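Supplementary notes (optional reading)

For those who missed the lab, this is the record we used. Protein: Phage protein. Length: 76 residues.
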Amino acid sequence: MKDNKGGKHITKRLSKEERNELRKNHFEQFLKIRDIVNELDPTGLIASGAPKDEHDTLTANILGLIIDKKIEEVRE
């Protein structure tokens, strides 16, 4: 994916089904990444009382990128 300026997006957009599948198949890793994302709380929502799953879309996208990178490394 590219932005309007021709650069690459950092995150890959996953469908809801893909996010749920990642969470199910890599639950332990998902929870570790969730803890990190919630600690960083990029939008301040957790600090404002939002539920722990508020950033789960971002968490799943990060996990997907990590898994994709590992698969690419194995292929090489």
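If you only remember one thing from this example: The chain has one domain: 16-75.
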